[in-house]
Design a protein that fits this description.
51% helix, 14 helices
């Protein structure tokens, strides 16, 4: 009996020590706050070590170690958590662990704004998500997929109207195309389709025309006028002779002065050599430009030339003699400024 009495203090001391150790471990594990907000991406088939490295990159080793330990304790299969999750500044390790193991993904926004090449668009979009540019290119090159929207693969850039779209990081290329495609079909409602038909154009042709108009001017008040000028050329069988298509064909949009040599480039998008609209758009365009074309008023212009004041606007003409006079003024100013 005496020995038992002597053991009790020792047992109590051991239990107390253990409690202190557990409490200290718990305090260490649960203590601390995220120093900043961070978007943590969990790739497909991620391991706990991969997760820890990702957190440590943004929030430090100590915080990453605590969160990862708690994730392991929760027994979550990270392979089922493929996605991107926002951990907010000031969160405890436990709160962050809960977000990573059972919380919602954080949506990512992509903004389309005047991409001039399909390859550039594919690179920029894919960089935001967990797929490659090639996988997006494959979907955009699929004739059956593009046919759902009345487009060819060459016209696939038309789907990506200038706008912002929200997706989750683990979205597939097919899902991206489906969402921007649904928006495209919403834009091309019955009312807009009837307006395009009245102009003698399909929605796909309007998109291509709009891309050229956007390259010609930033002035919204000119877009309808320029579009009608090009429609006039199409109606009389005149080549479009659109300088932006020459820049596109040459792969250099920085060219300020189109030379006679450039207009002879052998390329399907060169509208100096090929009659009609090019096979597809030369950039992404906007609903505003589409409506400027569809709501434009008829005119008799068939010629235009950039204004000599370099305002970005144009002088329009109905006869070649008027156009020549406009062009001479512009060329004199190019020469004066040393632009060759």
């Amino acid at each position: 009996m005496g020995q038992r009495k002597r053991r009790w203090p020792m047992v109590v001391a051991i239990v107390a020590a253990l409690a202190i150790c557990v409490g200290a471990a718990g305090f260490w594990l649960l203590g601390g706050k995220a120093p900043s907000s961070a978007l943590i991406r969990i790739p497909a088939n991620a391991s706990a070590e991969m997760l820890r490295d990702s957190i440590a990159r943004y929030l430090g080793d100590s915080y990453a170690g605590k969160v990862t330990r708690l994730v392991k304790m929760r027994g979550t299969d990270l392979r089922m958590r493929h996605g991107a999750y926002l951990l907010e500044a000031g969160w405890s390790p436990l709160t962050s662990a809960r977000r990573l193991t059972g919380g919602p993904q954080h949506p990512l926004t992509i903004t389309i704004n005047g991409f001039r090449q399909r390859s550039l668009l594919q690179d920029k979009v894919a960089a935001r998500f967990d797929f490659t540019p090639d996988s997006l290119a494959k979907v955009m090159a699929d004739e059956e997929v593009m046919g759902r929207y009345g487009l060819t693969p060459e016209q696939s850039m038309s789907l990506f109207l200038n706008d912002s779209f929200d997706f989750f990081w683990n979205v597939s290329p097919s899902d991206v195309v489906a969402k921007v495609g649904a928006h495209y079909l919403d834009v091309w409602n019955d009312a807009r389709r009837r307006k395009a038909e009245a102009l003698g154009l399909t929605p796909a042709e309007v998109m291509t025309l709009a891309s050229i108009v956007d390259e010609e001017t930033n002035a919204m008040e000119e877009k309808g006028t320029i579009a009608r000028l090009y429609i006039n050329r199409l109606n009389i069988g005149m080549p479009l002779q659109a300088d932006p298509t020459v820049r596109f064909a040459g792969g250099d949009f920085s060219v300020k002065r189109i030379t006679s040599k450039m207009t002879k480039i052998d390329h399907p998008y060169n509208t100096y050599k090929n009659r009609g609209l090019p096979p597809g758009p030369i950039r992404t365009t906007s609903v505003a430009t589409i409506d400027a074309i569809l709501d434009s008023k008829p005119n008799e212009y068939v010629y235009m030339c950039a204004k000599e004041d370099f305002s970005g606007r144009h002088n329009f003409a109905t006869t070649y003699a008027q156009h020549e006079a406009n062009a001479r003024r512009y060329k004199r100013e190019l020469n004066r400024r040393g632009i060759y």
